[in-house]
Amino acid sequence: MMDFISLTFFSRSENIKIARSVIQNFLAQKGIKEQDIFDTELAVNEAIANVIEHTYKFQRDKTIIMTLKWLEPNILEVYLRDFGEKVDPAKVKPRKLEEIRPGGLGVYIIKKIFNKMEFKDVENGNLLYLLKKYEI
């Protein structure tokens, strides 16, 4: 059975907590292990933070739409939609781990936690697609 939930919110850092809470509750209902839920929250947190910082340049009144789609028995799809400047997927890559400096690890974390990360082509803005298969 397929299940989904969608949340639309302004590009404010404090709204990431709400998005994380939705993810946490959604996955808990599916019986996903706590550590897997935390990892998923962390990765989506990074993706939303990247939209706020890089796409919207910390403007607090821009729209982000997060959709979670559950495909039985164990697959989560996350769609993150923004309406900012187009992102060049070729430029979205993690920094080298040996570079000791703050920041730049969001994409590394996302790719480590999710099985798939790709940008879908949309008319305006960006649509980040993430897919995760859970061990059940």
From TrEMBL:
Residues 12-130 form the Histidine kinase/HSP90-like ATPase domain. InterPro entries: Anti-sigma-factor_SerPK, HATPase_C_sf, HATPase_dom. CDD domains: HATPase_RsbW-like. Keywords: Kinase, Serine/threonine-protein kinase, Transferase. The keyword Kinase applies. PANTHER family: ANTI-SIGMA-F FACTOR RSBW, ANTI-SIGMA-F FACTOR RSBW-RELATED. This is Anti-sigma regulatory factor. It comes from Thermosipho affectus.
